[in-house]
Amino acid sequence: MARIVQKFGGTSVADVERIRNVARQVKAEVDRGNEVAVVVSAMAGTTNQLVDWCNQFGALHDRREYDVVVATGEQVTIGLLAMALQELGQKARSWTGWQLPVRTDNAFAKARVKAIDTAGIEEGFKRGEVAVVPGFQGLAPDNRITTLGRGGSDTSAVALAAALKADRCDIYTDVDGVYTTDPRIVAKARKLDKITYEEMLEMASLGAKVLQTRSVELAMNHRVRVQVRSSFTDVPGTLVVDEDEIVEQAIVSGIAYARDEAKVTLAQVPDKPGVAAAIFGPLADAQVNVDMIVQNVSRDGKTTDMTFTVPAVDLERAVAVLEKARASLGFSGLQADKNVAKISVIGVGMRSHAGVAQSMFRTLAEKGINIEVITTSEIKISVLIAAEYTELAVRALHTAYGLDAA
Amino acid sequence: MARIVQKFGGTSVADVERIRNVARQVKAEVDRGNEVAVVVSAMAGTTNQLVDWCNQFGALHDRREYDVVVATGEQVTIGLLAMALQELGQKARSWTGWQLPVRTDNAFAKARVKAIDTAGIEEGFKRGEVAVVPGFQGLAPDNRITTLGRGGSDTSAVALAAALKADRCDIYTDVDGVYTTDPRIVAKARKLDKITYEEMLEMASLGAKVLQTRSVELAMNHRVRVQVRSSFTDVPGTLVVDEDEIVEQAIVSGIAYARDEAKVTLAQVPDKPGVAAAIFGPLADAQVNVDMIVQNVSRDGKTTDMTFTVPAVDLERAVAVLEKARASLGFSGLQADKNVAKISVIGVGMRSHAGVAQSMFRTLAEKGINIEVITTSEIKISVLIAAEYTELAVRALHTAYGLDAA
Fold it and tell me: What was the pLDDT predicted at B232?
């Protein structure tokens, strides 16, 4: 007997018929002799509608009330799925985030899970009951409702799998696994059988959109074996596992891209100690996450240009914060550009192989693509380019690193 | 300074613009120096959609899961209204049923409110905060979500007004008060300035549909002053109050009708002690509420005919229960008829005036309308007639009792 957490996203539970289909997949897992907890998202489209209503009260609406509103989407799904399971003769009950509870911090609209009390679920397992749990939602220390931010259902599933010490966390989605790159852009993209947590983390945070970044961090920290698989087919998906579970490791595992960042350049910032802190402190206070940062060498010994990227959705807020601090920061000009894309080459094999960066730069140069910003980590190299070159760059790199399917 | 509970129904909060309109009405009450708690329904149409999804899992779906699903409608509204109030510069916060909590019994899908903890709301009043509370939902003893049944938001509002010892409970609705009868049927119907709890109770339970029956019972028991008024105009509505607040009491206050009952006749039931209990016991067990009951005088000393009404939606269930018990009950035939209407004349003044019933019977006879069943109480007389005569009967009685507007 294994203990499995299954997670189904919004398209898998988009209507009553699909919820019945999910119920069949859950029951099949129970019939194999396993204990099952299911985490579900809101029915496709629901969360967008709820968020849209909230946004009609301006960008500065009360995030605590936002969470009250958007948490309802998942609550609908858990009730319906519990009914669908019962319809199949499978014992089941729903648990809201506050009923378990799923304890989070008080960062409303982007809360982090602190602890999940699984006592109720484990009691249910003894009675042969499937636990149906909403993704995305939790309970703040002051007993108000929190949500984990968009895509938080993956995180909920992995956190629940960790809390339940589950043998596996199956993330059912509308793709059948993790690919070497986005198959919509590169027809020759290949599905990976296994990928390491570290690589998946880079893939997720760089825009591969298969798994939410925090869910992968959490899986890595708690060594939760995660399987990304399709809710529409029965083929095995991609296992996200420890590096030592992967026998033959490729140098580069995948190419990721992200078009949801914006570039900000501050011209002629006084080049003195503490200026970076002076710039990024206020942005952090305004909850704007800064990603790539490049500080140019000072031309005149007095001033420098500072370039960095922020999420495109936060660009206006970032610009407002910076303009407000213009006098104290002392920069002469501010340029903002949303027409950029971040292209990344990822692979744990990079650590032991030289020349990976060089291949990337040469490949892009051959296509006439200008690199605006570069950042690197142990297992990835990212470049910022003009957005219009995204597909061209991804295809060229996929071929250059030998990732194309035969 | 007064303490007011306001309640807005589904059409008043049907979209973001209307929610903003509600926020303005709430703020106006605060600006008059009052402490305000607002109870809201789900946005129009939402609950129907949620109920429809649940019903796709058959009539016997788990009512606990049903409550999980349908309680979400009101949760959406409280968050949005809190935002709308904040947008106007009015401090506000939402409280879900489980946060207060609103304690109910465990009759899922038709729970009754046991107690409301108002400590959080009263703390908020001290901070100048409006409390935004969902109608319809509560918390069972086992901490699962309950709902109060359709229309339960009125009950929530009155229960909250009682718990807060509010000076008034204003029920905003799509009509501007309580009328002497349905204005859609009788153009000369008049709006009442005041009506007693007892009369309102008869009006509500007899199908006037302005206020939910249980909310009126609750208001009467706790002496909550209720005002029924329009959310679209500013004119005063109808106050539902104690009899002694009404100086000049009419003999008849209103004419109500209900077309949602069905008549059942059991022919030749053995006329012996205990037969009524034998018939109505199984119906009660099947949760079918029996309303009007007439037992004919026995013609042969051995058998009698028994006629009664049940809610039309429960007719099939009632017939099934009775047919199953046919052998033990010993009746010879069962007739069921949905084409009936119950017409009622209501007024506390009836208690001290003779001849009210006689006027009713004569008026109907003059129009050639046959009376099938009669029941009376201290303050009302109800008759069952063929449904096709409903409008004719209501209009004739409205004129006969001098209720027509000048």
Answer: 81
Q: Scanning the structure block, which residue is given the tokens 């409303």?
A: A108
**Contact flag B145-A96 (C-beta cutoff 8 Å):** yes
The alpha carbon dihedral of A174, A178, A182, A184 has a sign of negative
Helices of type H across B300-348: 315-324, 326-329
**Which residue in the block uniquely carries the two structure tokens 């004129």?**
B399
Q: For A315-319, what is the mean pLDDT?
A: 94
Q: Which of A64, A87, A93 sits opposite B57 (nearest CB)?
A: A87
Judged by CB atoms closer than 8 Å, whether chains meet at B145 and A57 is answered as: no
Q: So what's the pLDDT on residue B304?
A: 87
Contact list in A for residue B16 (CB cut-off 8 A) is 53, 56-57
In angstroms, rounded to a whole number, what is the distance separating the alpha carbons of residues A262 and A259? 8
Q: What is the per-residue pLDDT across A237-288, written as a single tens digit (0 to 9) for each?
A: 999 999 888 877 788 999 999 999 999 999 999 888 888 888 998 899 888 9
pLDDT at B207 over 70: no
Beta carbons of B72 and B50 less than 8 angstroms apart? yes
Q: What is Dmax (Cα atoms) for chain B?
A: 77
Q: Which residue of A has its CA nearest to B69?
A: A76
User: Would the ipTM clear 0.90, i.e. be above it?
Assistant: no
Least Cα distance to A107 among A146, A138, A80, A155 occurs for A146
Token pair 């589950």: residue:
A166
The label of the residue with tokens 């070159």 reads: A389
CA distance A384 to B148: 56
Residue of A nearest to B68 (CA): A79
- Compute the nearest-CA separation of B4 from chain A (Å): 23
Instruction: Give the residue among B185, B217, B380 at the shortest CA–CA distance from B291.
Output: B380
Range B222-250 average pLDDT = 89
**Selection from A48, A297, A295, A16 nearest residue A151 by Cα:** A48
* DSSP letter assigned to residue A236: -
Closest partner residue to A76 among B50, B62, B86, by Cβ? Answer: B50
Q: How far apart are CA A285 and CA B361, in angstroms?
A: 78
Long-range pairs for A23-29 at CB < 8 Å and ≥24 separation? Answer: A23/A81, A23/A84, A23/A85, A23/A87, A23/A88, A23/A90, A24/A88, A25/A172, A25/A231, A26/A81, A26/A85, A26/A90, A26/A130, A27/A85, A27/A88, A27/A90, A29/A4
Residue B136, Ramachandran bin (φ over 0: left; ψ between -120 and 50: alpha; else beta): left
Sign of the torsion formed by the C-alpha atoms of B314, B319, B320 and B322: positive
Query: How confident is the model at residue A92, as a pLDDT?
Result: 98
Q: Using CB atoms, which residue from B66, B68, B94 is nearest to A75?
A: B68
Give the pLDDT of residue B208: 66
Report the candidate in B367, B342, B365, B380 with the shortest Cα–Cα distance to residue B252: B380
| Amino acid at residue number A313 | V
What region does A357 belong to: left with phi over 0, alpha with psi -120 to 50, or beta?
A: alpha
- Could you tell me the residue ranges of all domains in chain B? 3-174
pLDDT digits over A297-309, tens only?
777 778 888 999 9
- What's the pLDDT tens digit per position in B155-205? 999 999 999 999 999 999 888 899 999 988 999 999 999 999 999 988 876
Per-residue pLDDT tens over the stretch B61-89: 899 999 999 999 999 999 999 999 999 99
What six digits make up the tokens of B237? 């509505």
What is the fold, at CATH topology level, of the domain defined by A3-174? Carbamate kinase (3.40.1160)
Kindly report, residue by residue over A209-219, the tens digit of the pLDDT.
788 888 999 99
Q: In this model, does residue B97 exceed pLDDT 90?
A: yes
